[in-house]
Amino acid sequence: MVRGRTWLIAILLVALVGRLLAAWVVQRNVGDQLCLIAGDAEGYWELARKMTAGKGFSLYEPPRQVHRMPGFPAVLALSMKLFGASPFAARCLLAVIGTAACGAVYLLGRRLFDERVALIACGLTAISPVMAGFSVLLLSETLFALTLTMSLWCAACWLPAESREKSGVVFWPLLTGISIAIATYVRPSWMLAGPLLALLVVLLKKPRGKACLESAVMLLGLFGALLPWAWRNHEVSGHWVFTTLWSGPSLYDGLNPDANGDSNMTFFDRDNLMAKLSEWDVDQHYKQAAWQYARQNPGRAVELTFWKLWRYWKPWPSAAQFGGVGPALVVLVFFVPVLLLAARGWWLIRQRPWVWLLTLGPILYFAAIHAVFVGSLRYRLPAEYPLCVLAAVGVCDFIRRWCGGTEGSGLQISKLPRQF
User: Fold this and answer.
1) What angle do CA 204, 309, 99 make, to 5 degrees?
2) Higher per-residue pLDDT: 32 or 195
């Protein structure tokens, strides 16, 4: 245990140093810009500035008051409170959060497997150049990766079927729901993971009555934790909204006559519907327009689905800011081996559904969502953190085979806890 703790500290130090170095490099290169990816970073920064000044939570004119979830702007606001309006200080804080995300991967790996897998998975995330680089951008991906992975860890503590303690019926399901809500405060698309997980628990976990009770407790924790945000949204919009009023424009971004799988929100400013409609009505208008386009053009909708999936799984960046051979090789050299190792890891534990659902499930979940909206490496990246746990299983199997199957040379799948 002491040796494992020493390795963990060393890996986390590598992760932190790499991310702090990335913060310095990014800040030096962006200059007066907040981010290489225009748009989102400026919006988050402005929301954080307003939160710090106590000026409310809205953007633009006419104001969009339910445009973003408050989780990431709140972290930037914390940085502003502590260190002033310094983008570099915020990047350093995000470097710490990125390191914590590596630690969360360790916790998930140790819970599902053992110390060896946990350390390898943590090491993979620590040395990932893409994860390190994205950690210090003023974007929500890394904070979401941390909260997403912690929600999976809570679920891993809950799901063992052999748990008979009273706390197993209430505490861990409730904490799982709350942790999913915390992640949803950062990225709204994770909210659907709660109902989906509840359905899987009812279908797969025994006894059925206990599974139904635990699922109900989990959903109570999820929606109870989101209720203050929904209440606030009802106050400003007149509607109970548990996430945002931006899903309609986002959906239309992926399903419209000019769509190509990439994000292009120029239609929003061109149409200028906010000048005559409420934020709720604008959201509903674009949802209806997107589904109408899909119904009237089913062939094109299917074609767009394939383009979005290609952009999501593409092993090199699509964004023009990261074009060139260098960035492509950086992403490809890390992601492709991780994907292949994860495939091997899945094969080894394919008969243990909870294990691979908690490690492979998130990246498939977001693939399904962004097959409808728009596809990008950005939306895949947070799910690569738990995927590294599955890849670590593949690494252990590779080590075992390389060492000739000697005892202690790799993960013994037969020794996994039976409850998984």
Assistant:
1) 75
2) 195
DSSP assignments along 335-354, one per residue: HHHHHHHHHHHHHHTTT-HH
pLDDT of residue 207: 86
CA end-to-end span of the chain: 23
Q: Tell me which DSSP letter residue 65 carries.
A: S
Helices and strands, number each (H, E), in the chain = 18, 0
| Both tokens assigned to 307 | 């383009």
Q: 64: which strand partners? A: 59
Q: For residue range 330-341, what is the model confidence (pLDDT) as tens digits?
A: 889 999 999 999
| Beta-carbon-side half-sphere exposure of residue 173 (alpha carbons within 13 Å) | 25
**What is the DSSP secondary structure assignment for residue 135, as one 8-state letter?**
H
Radius of gyration, CA atoms only, the chain: 22
Sign (positive or negative) of CA dihedral 396, 399, 405, 410: negative
> Angle 325-348/377-402 helices, nearest 10 degrees?
60
Percentage of residues in the chain having pLDDT higher than 90: 80
Pair of tokens at residue 3:
């040796």
What contacts 407, CB < 8 A, 6 or more positions away?
Answer: none
Cβ(312)–Cβ(379) under 8 Å? yes
Backbone angles phi, psi at 166, to 5 degrees: -60, -35
Give CA–CA dist 133/136, Å, rounded: 6
Contact (CB, 8 A) for 113 and 411: yes
Name the residue type at position 12: L
Residue 362 tokens read as: 């998130």
Neighbours of 120 (CB within 10 A): 26
Largest CA-CA distance found in the chain, in angstroms, rounded? 71
- Whether residue 314 contacts residue 378, with contact meaning beta carbons closer than 8 Å, is answered with no
Rounded (to 5) percent helix, strand, coil in the chain = 75, 0, 25
Q: Is 59 helix (H, G, I), strand (E, B) or coil?
A: strand
Evaluate whether 71 touches 140 at the Cβ level (below 8 Å). yes
Look up residue 324 and give its two tokens: 């060139």
